[in-house]
Design goal:
The protein is of the alpha+beta class. The protein is 25% helix and 26% strand. The protein is elongated and about 85 Å long.
């Protein structure tokens, strides 16, 4: 959860929400925001901040934890706003590496029955709409590694050809 309090930087920041719905911070631990509508969380925070400021001006924004892994430049778990799309989430992780394939992105998402759903996405083609899917808390996004023709076909072939040529030269010299 991101809280920004106007003219009170010491009250502002990104905070985790504990299992009981409270904000995991000594200052805010009495404020319950988890499992309630945003309007209710906003009212609870306003009531708490009123102890320190008569008319507190603040913004409260939920954040979703999303794991972005695989062939991205900065794989990690990110706290992102709910409006973030799958493509934007990959961009937050620094985009794909030189081996990353945006046409082979796997999304692992929790389902209503407690299981997980896995979907393969193609972020290269906007007409599919997959790039614009919004993230959900707990999503895992995996950018798969592409085949490099050079490293997987040409280089091994050149190595074998080079080895055979060396053997041929060696045999020819000692005939």
């Amino acid at each position: 959860m991101r809280i920004v309090v106007w003219r009170k930087p010491e009250f502002s920041g990104e905070f985790a929400v504990a299992a009981d719905g409270s904000i995991s911070h000594p200052l805010y631990q009495a404020v319950r925001v988890g499992g309630v509508p945003l309007a209710t969380a906003r009212a609870a925070l306003r009531s708490f901040l009123a102890k320190f400021d008569q008319e507190p001006q603040f913004v409260i924004e939920p954040l979703f934890r999303v794991a972005i892994e695989g062939e991205v430049n900065r794989p990690s778990v990110y706290a992102l706003s709910p409006e973030t799309t799958i493509a934007e989430a990959v961009a937050h992780a620094g985009g794909p590496t030189q081996f990353g394939r945006l046409d082979r992105v796997r999304l692992l998402r929790g389902s209503a029955n407690g299981g997980h759903t896995q979907v393969r996405l193609d972020l290269n083609h906007p007409e599919t709409g997959a790039a614009q899917w919004p993230i959900r808390s707990g999503d895992q996004i995996l950018v798969e590694r592409g085949r490099s023709i050079f490293s997987q076909v040409i280089l091994p072939t050149l190595t074998v050809v080079g080895a055979l040529a060396s053997v041929g030269i060696f045999i020819h010299q000692y005939k």
